[in-house]
Amino acid sequence: MRAKTIFICLTICFFAVYVHFKNQSQHGRRTIPQTCYTDLYRNLSICNFVCPNGTFALPGMKSCRRWLKCGAKITLMSTISRSVVKTVYLAKWEDYEVVLSVLSGKEYEEDFKQNLFMIKSLNGQYTVQLIGFCKYNILTRYYAFGNALNVNSHLRSSLRLYDNVKLRLDLCISYVSVINFLHTSPVGVRVMCDSNSLEKTLSQFLLTDDLKIVVNDLDATPEVNESQKGIVCGNRALWNSFVAPEQLWPYGDETYDPKKMPLYNEKTDIWKIPDVCNWFLGGSSEADILKYKLFNFHKSCKNRDPSQRPSAKLILKMYEKLRNDLIETKPSSTVTLL
């Protein structure tokens, strides 16, 4: 009887061990989700892993890897840009072209750290892809099309076969998707402060290989929290018509003092959306029709009362509805003006 009991116990133990290792094996083989797209730069279809935060995968990699740390072998190739905050290099890691951002001066260390904090916190489809970091160095994915300022030159040359009003509206949708994400981010409501002109705004965003928009520079994205009731962008007076009215110094010839400046919130980003989208749409006759359709809605984005402006989420819905209308309209049909 005792031998029988021992046999049963051993059988149960062996079965438990078998189940454990089987589950471990299945866990190890768990499928990592992928996203597939058309790489317009190389003119081929690409599938890439969607990796959990803290890891990354570049096209062609067979698994996700942890963010690179100090000691990774990086070869500098050329200088992309220089600013007071950072110097940006085109570099090489293994067989991949990557971008290395290096702090320019210790006086801007906090800005540099803020950029890294935001990229790490928001890492995903709306932000530049983080590959690694070490002290005053940030390594990110290289996007061959460059920043959003380049889109028209690409669409007039290498991408001219893809140039149509639907693609241009998709750029508006992609841009507003990023703004909506920043306004509802897991690290609070964030405002794009480095956006004092159209050119400056567009330079903060990169074009992906399938011509989507991702935000690249996040060092000036303060949080609008309930206790402070608002933010002020920078320590200098703003003056041009691109910025929202509430961002302008309201006290005439009096010397600018940021401490006296009335606070504002994320609705400053909403004010700028029509100008950005109209730039993406371009000047074709089809684009003019879309601008006409959007005129009254864009006018609401320019309401001098920030509280009366629509949210980024509502703008996104409007753009997507217009996109669906374009898809449903036959190419030969005449678009009726509203």
Automatic annotation (TrEMBL):
Record's keyword terms, sorted: ATP-binding, Endoplasmic reticulum, Kinase, Membrane, Nucleotide-binding, Signal, Signal-anchor, Transferase, Transmembrane, Transmembrane helix
GO biological process, one term: protein O-linked glycosylation
Highest taxon in the source lineage: Eukaryota
Subcellular location, principal: endoplasmic reticulum
SUPFAM superfamilies: Protein kinase-like (PK-like) (SSF56112)
InterPro entries listed in its UniProt record: Kinase-like_dom_sf, POMK
Reaction(s) this enzyme catalyzes, per UniProt: 3-O-[beta-D-GalNAc-(1->3)-beta-D-GlcNAc-(1->4)-alpha-D-Man]-L-Thr-[protein] + ATP = 3-O-[beta-D-GalNAc-(1->3)-beta-D-GlcNAc-(1->4)-(O-6-P-alpha-D-Man)]-Thr-[protein] + ADP + H(+)
Intracellular or extracellular location(s): Endoplasmic reticulum membrane
Signal peptide residues on this chain, from the entry's feature table: 1-21
EC numbers on record: 2.7.1.183
Record flagged with keyword Transmembrane helix: yes
A GO term for molecular function: phosphotransferase activity, alcohol group as acceptor
EC class (word): transferase
GO cellular component: endoplasmic reticulum membrane
Record's bilayer topology term: Single-pass type II membrane protein
Purpose: Protein O-mannose kinase that specifically mediates phosphorylation at the 6-position of an O-mannose of the trisaccharide (N-acetylgalactosamine (GalNAc)-beta-1,3-N-acetylglucosamine (GlcNAc)-beta-1,4-mannose) to generate phosphorylated O-mannosyl trisaccharide (N-acetylgalactosamine-beta-1,3-N-acetylglucosamine-beta-1,4-(phosphate-6-)mannose). Phosphorylated O-mannosyl trisaccharide is a carbohydrate structure present in alpha-dystroglycan (DAG1), which is required for binding laminin G-like domain-containing extracellular proteins with high affinity.
Full protein name: Protein O-mannose kinase
UniProt lineage: Eukaryota, Metazoa, Ecdysozoa, Arthropoda, Chelicerata
Gene for this chain: POMK
